[in-house]
Design brief:
It contains 23 helices and ten strands. By secondary structure, it is an alpha/beta fold. It folds into three domains: about 130 residues, Response regulator (Rossmann fold), CATH 3.40.50; about 150 residues, Alpha-Beta Plaits (2-Layer Sandwich), CATH 3.30.70.270; about 220 residues, Arc Repressor Mutant, subunit A (Orthogonal Bundle), CATH 1.10.10.60. The strands form two sheets. Strands 2-1-3-4-5 form a five-stranded parallel sheet, sandwiched between helices. A five-stranded mixed sheet has the order 7-8-6-9-10. About 25% of the residues are buried.
Length: about 525
Amino acid sequence: MQWVNTMKLLIVDDEKLTREGIISNINWSDLGIQEIYEADDGFNGIEMGRKHKPDIILSDVRMPRKNGIEMARELHKLLPFASIIFMSGYSDKEYLMEAIKLKAVNYVEKPIEEAEMEASIKDALEEQSVHARNKMKSEYHFKESQNRLGLKIIYPFTEEASSDYQRQLMELGYPIKPGVEFTTLIITLKTPLSALSEAKLNELYMKIDGAVKDNRLQYILSLKNDEYLLLHLLSRDKTRETALEVITRELASFLEQHFTYYIAIGKTVKGVKKVYESYNSAVLLLQSSFFYEYNSIIQPHAGFIQPVLAEQSLYSAYVQALKHQNREESLEIITDIYKMYQNNQSMIPSYAKDFYYKLFFSLVQTASELHLQNFYEKDSAYILEYLLKDKNLSEFHRLLTDKLILFFSSLRNKSKENSVIYAIKEYISRNYQNETLSVKDISEQVYLSSSYVCTLFKNETGKTLNQYLTEYRIEKAKAMLKDSRVKITDISSKVGYSDSNYFSKTFKRNSNLSPSEYREKYGK
């Protein structure tokens, strides 16, 4: 037999020796009881019951001030599912009848025999197990019914069906009045819901439950397509904007500790028949999440005018800046483009993606014209593949910025470095994430022997190939460590180290700080 929660026992008896004897003579841990509390009369028993909420109450019948039967009646109101065992040296019919009325598990006569006591405790534990199973079934049924209802009300329904929905809401404990307000929140996580552990999902459910109830609202929670949590907030009174803001902020604070997420807030509507309008407005907002940073709360604001004319003007200026090899102007233009698109709620993401592809393609084309094709020969396919992935605007902007910086760096170094050294560094910059990257791989890329490449690289740069590769990886790791949302173990694998402990040692050897110390000092 298994119990989900820690089992707690309260012993109430005015005789200290009796309490101590019961505690010392029975192996409670073997029975599955981890916490034992004591009280010396009925009054203190009630206080201990209120404070510790025991699962099983073992009580003497006759005690000063308040007897066991009187105490049990009051505790039954506080703890309706607690199991009660009475003890008495008097086989009074009156007490036995009262014990039966209170549905006591057992009635143990004094002097107490250990075997009889253990049998009574086991009966009480079995009763608790039944309660736990019934509670789980009840909660599961409630969640399933709530989930189904939450998915049904996101679609328009007829006046005839309205009474059926009202009935379902009432059955689930939502006393709906005509003017009740609904606001739908859609939470989407980058991790599929099915990939979350049951413990993590339950933790999220508990956070939602606590945040909503602390603000005196009710909610209907549903899961949709393994991707979205639909949270329909409802209030008997007018939904206060402050309550909605507090709930959303609390959820966001919890989510950013564990997940990458977006929250879209639909408009507030009156009546269950209008919930679909709140849901649809949240869906439209969520479609614009591409234009927002991860871990953003998206709510309606004044719409944007699609900046088509500004785009053409900026694109022409960008092409000219590349042609004239103007680094600062190029970077400034793409920053302006990013700001122009950022937090846009009216544009289709594919439109912006197409424009970014034009920006990338112009960069690749310019590099080719300047005979930097060794560096960019694979970039067109890579960029197209990247744009087809589930990325957002800020990730596109960061990639374009990195490519631009790399482009101007390669121009600066073109005349200074041996072409073989240049090709080696370029190959490392594209393959440093590969844990198995070796001198042999690099040598084959430039069609030279390993020994010759090692000697040439050391003579030209003053560093060994392995030393350069390690330093390159550590510099990439430093950049990622400044973003506190990225886990150190993920950074380790992203820079070519599957063993995070070895990564930490290598990082400290090269920077005199561990990854966590570096993040604490320089992280954002």
